[in-house]
Amino acid sequence: MTTPRRQTVGRTTVLPRGAVAAAVPVALAALFAAAGPAAAGTIGSSGAGDPYFPLAGNGGYDVRHYDLTLGYDPGSRHLDGRAVLRARAAQRLTRFDLDLKGLKVTGVTVDHIKASFRHQGQELVITPRHALRSGQDFRVAVDYQGTPKPVTDPDGALDGWIPTDDGAFVASEPQGAMTWFPANSHPKDKASYDITITVPQGRTAVSNGVLVDQRTAHGRTTFHWRQSEPMAAYLATATVGTFKVERYTTRDGVDVYNAVDPRLASASAPVLKQLPSVLAWESKLFGPYPFRAAGAIVDRAPNVGYALETQSRPVYDRAPRLSILVHESAHQWFGDSVTLTRWQDIWLNEGFATYAEWLYAEQHGGKTSQQAFDAFYARPASDGLWAYPPADPGSGARLFGTPVYVRGAMALHKLRTAVGDAAFFRILHTWTADHRGGHGTTARFVQLSERLSGRDLGALFRTWTATAGKPSAP
Ligand code: TRP
Ligand code: ZN
Question: 328 in ligand 1 pocket by Cβ < 6 Å?
Fold first, then answer.
């Protein structure tokens, strides 16, 4: 219950952690940056400025809404896509980028006028016929197609569009969104989504939010999903497979849609049955559930090794254990509704979701959080748990390591014991309320904790989240 599975199954068993991988994007970013000053001010940058993923996201505009229309054939693995983005220019733009990797772009328009484009690596560079004014709302349409392939992350894990034996498992943290749609692919830029997917009749395509329409014609079924609350690109999914579907509405009026691979139906049923009570329990601890829709996608994806908190409806690569359901559900507040601003702050996602598992165990007849904390603190200074501080992992290769999950949870436990339960849960409620649908940073969380507790917590946070090595006192 208390040992998070992601870093054991998800991260360490897949591949050795790549030390080499980081060098290439950094060099590329330097090249792009060097090209910048020539036309200073009118060219949207090729990255959002995140040192862990220099080419992730883009500068110069802000996406408001994505309208994705996809067709997928699991047999040939061919994807047809049309993406219509509504965005606002943050500066005068003669040129801007989207992130898209490995698919062929066949046409781009900006405000319905054909635009010229160049596709290089993960950057789709678009030159509109007419420059965009700062503050101008504009519409970009991209037609594309091909065989999507997942990307290999700096830590060796696969993410993005991952084919399965009956469809595709689509989980895009941190950088896989660009494997299936053109995006401003950095969590800084959240937007609402309409995602429409056509698949052969008999398959189901499951995405985020509410199912607004489903129709079958000529042997194909189209599913139209709408995610109306803001969402980061990495949290989008369009998972395709042969699924058993279950739908109901919770007492709180949340629409639940579960899609389960029939081979995993009996193994997952007892855990999925708990979803409403887990969400209700988390709502008491963290504040109101942030979305209109909920659910689960349980798929058989043997080469994935992790689950992901895709917004409103997490994807599980196998039948989940209850602790994993608790973890991915907690991410709906911590990560999905309140989203990180830079990947370095990943402990705001994983430390919190892991601490939710500890709290759940504690309040449901399992170990107490203190027992969990003590067991981890007993690990020797040489243990990987102390390899780096959770709020400063140092690179994209370390985002999902034990220090982020476990030491991140330990930091929250220290905060809770320092300020007491009343202040601690007030901090969590206020955090999710103040940043609902938006973003958070570690600095803001520290500030809020100090304000609501009336204490100076600098040393505590420094020791537990930002200092290398095992803290000398528990
Ligand atoms: N955020 C996921 C979780 O903890 C884990 C995750 C996302 C992951 N992408 C990954 C783990 C890639 C390993 C590899 O719920
Ligand atoms: Zn997690």
Answer: yes
